[in-house]
Amino acid sequence: MSLMNKSTKEWNKQYIAGQWVEGSGEKQLDNLNPFTGDVIGSWTSSSKDDIDRAYRSALEKGHEWAALPPGERSKVLRQVTVVMDQRKDEIIELLIQESGSTRVKAELEWKSARRVAEESASFPYRMKGEILPSDIPGKENRIIREAKGVIGVIGPWNFPLHLCMRSVAPALALGNGVVIKPASDTPITAGWLIADLFEEAGLPAGVLNVVAGSGSEIGDDFVSHPIPKVISFTGSTEVGQGIGRLAGEHLKESALELGGNNVMVVLDDAEADRAAAAAVFGKFLHQGQICMALNRIVVDESIYDAFLEAFLGYVKKLQAGDPADPKTLVGPLIHKREVDRLLGEVESAKKQGARVAAGGTAKGSVLEPTVLVDVKPDFDIVQKELFGPVAVIIKASGEEEALRIANDTKYGLSGSVFTTDLERGYRVARRIETGMIHVNDQSVNDEAHVMFGGEKASGLGRFGGDWAIDKFSRMRWISIQNPYRDYPLVNG
User: Fold this and answer.
1) What is the per-residue pLDDT across 69-95, written as a single tens digit (0 to 9) for each?
2) pLDDT on residue 492
3) Can you say how many angstroms the Cα of residue 317 is from the centroid of all Cα atoms in its chain?
4) Cα distance from N-terminal residue to C-terminal residue, the chain
5) Do 17 and 124 reside in the same domain of the chain?
6) Element (DSSP H or E) covering residue 65
7) Is residue 415 part of a domain?
8) In this structure, are 363 and 433 located in the same domain?
9) Which of 195, 235, 300, 459 has its CB surrounded by the most CB atoms within 10 Å?
10) C-alpha–C-alpha distance, residues 78 and 296, integer Å
């Protein structure tokens, strides 16, 4: 059944054991359109009991799901891509309405999420084991790969469909049961929609479950429940640290994709216009509300003026406003309070000596694309993940200073280097402490078959391709002894 044909009441419910059921928590929550402020819907939060029922369903039905032939699991994942094709327009409209995605960003997110499902469809056939020799006569050592059991997925609001699908699709393809706790700001696109897509694609009832509520009410119970083997979280470093601690206390794995203070280094031999165009996209896509978004743009002093002229030229052409307008690149921030926070950061930077070269004003929840120049590496704003449409441009005196600035952060997620000498770009990229970095491209890159993950305070673990297989499945050693062994001091 299409999402748009579902009743409002049904979409206000939890999805547990294959049924849309009323939450039994104490809180009533509203789902708001960040641009208009309109209420999309309201729902009753999940409770601890709801979480327990969801995990138990995922465990029981997950065992049955894992026992199916690989072709059966692969077929469901392939069918998800078919359903996503059929419902593309609907999914894009939901992303625009619920997360404030611009149309161009929503299109990219739909494509990325679909690609994850497509890549995951191959995973059931990539669960390889091996047979190892033994020094014990008659022993055969079998190393098998199998599902870990149940995966708990805590999804974000900024790329809700893609970043949840990045864990859900691989985990299911490998034979796990899954429970999603979507961000409260995007319960549909980070949770209920995903459940609906898999339900329509033929996933057996109960394998995938969704419990929705605020982290303050159900977050700890979701992580500490004894059933899930892995907690996959995408969000802020501060929240991720708490989840990592709690998961560690209960001796369960975590996959943490956290914050970033991503840098673009523009070297002295770079083409200024090309670098500027890439920087504008990498900074302002989805209003900068992306963990991979550029936070700092470090430009060699020899081409600083040319770069800044080109950068400002592109920025001043950007359209900010209604995310549903195809010409809009900068839409609303997720909350009005985020506008106030960012304007406060801009004012603080100005007091330290920064200058606003563009933007600096807001209308409602839309902050104009803002550019700060005359920024020094020791300014407070340089060390913060801004998560908004504020570009910080820093002048560097040579390659070594640019590298010092680039690495002077607790984060290490993504990054970028621009140069006309590709081998030089590779050498510089090797010296920047990030999990991912791109030469002659901006920092926002994510491909389903390639590893994704950060260093330092940007997270633990890797997503994508073979790395997702490693995260959501396990290896076990099963030996077979034939004939029976004789044991010293026992068999004589």
Assistant:
1) 999 999 999 999 999 999 999 999 999
2) 65
3) 29
4) 70
5) yes
6) helix 48-66
7) yes
8) yes
9) 459
10) 39
Local structure of 310: helix, strand or coil: helix
Residue 391 in tokens? 């570009």
The encoded tokens of residue 469 equal 């297989």
Per-residue pLDDT reduced to its tens digit, 119-163: 999 999 999 999 999 999 999 999 999 999 999 999 999 999 999
Q: Measured between alpha carbons, how far is residue 38 from residues 6, 31, 149, 182, 464 in Å?
A: 19, 9, 40, 20, 36
Pair 409, 311 in one domain: yes
Asked if residues 100 and 151 have their Cβ atoms less than 8 Å apart, the reply is no
- Determine how β-strand 150-154 pairs with β-strand 177-181: parallel
Q: State the CB neighbour count (10 A cutoff) for residue 347.
A: 12
SS3 298: strand
Residue 239: inside a domain, yes or no? yes
Which stretches of 381-492 are assigned E, i.e. beta strand?
Answer: 390-396, 411-412, 415-418, 438-439, 455-456, 459-460, 473-481
Closest by Cα among 107, 446, 423 to 262: 446
Compute the average pLDDT of residues 13-32. 95
User: In terms of domains, do 182 and 317 share one?
Assistant: no
In 247-364, DSSP assigns E strands to: 253-257, 262-266, 294-300, 355-358, 362-363
Catalytic pick from 109, 200, 257, 345?
Answer: 257
- Give the domain range for residue 144: 3-258+462-477
Whether 257 is catalytic: yes
Residue whose C-alpha is closest to residue 169's, from 123, 100, 235, 229: 123
Give the whole-angstrom CA distance, residue 289 versus residue 109: 13
Measured at the alpha carbon of residue 464, what is the angle toward residues 461 and 466, in degrees to the nearest 5?
90
Q: Region 12-39: what's the mean pLDDT? A: 95
Q: Whole-model pTM?
A: 0.95
Residue 7 confidence class, pLDDT cut points 50, 70, 90: very low
One domain for residues 220 and 281 = no
Query: 26 and 214 in contact (C-beta within 8 Å)?
Result: no
- Indicate which CATH number applies to the domain containing 314: 3.40.309.10
Residue with tokens 């303050």: 216
Q: In whole angstroms, give the CA distance from residue 129 to residue 146.
A: 9
Residues 242, 298: one domain?
no
**Residue 96 located in a structural domain:** yes
**Which of 103, 96, 256, 109 shows the shortest CA–CA distance to 186?**
96
Tokens standing for residue 157 = 């609001």
CA 205 – CA 62 distance, rounded (Å): 10
Burial profile 262-294: b = 16 or more Cβ within 10 angstroms, e = fewer: bbbbbbbebbbeebbbbbbbbbbbbbbbbbbbb
For residue 149, being part of any structural domain is answered with yes
d(CA 235, CA 97): 21
Give me the pLDDT at residue 217, please. Answer: 86
What is the C-alpha separation between 448 and 111, in angstroms, rounded? 11
CA distance 431 to 399: 11
Give the domain CATH number at 210.
3.40.605.10
Report the DSSP beta bridge partners of residue 392. 296, 372
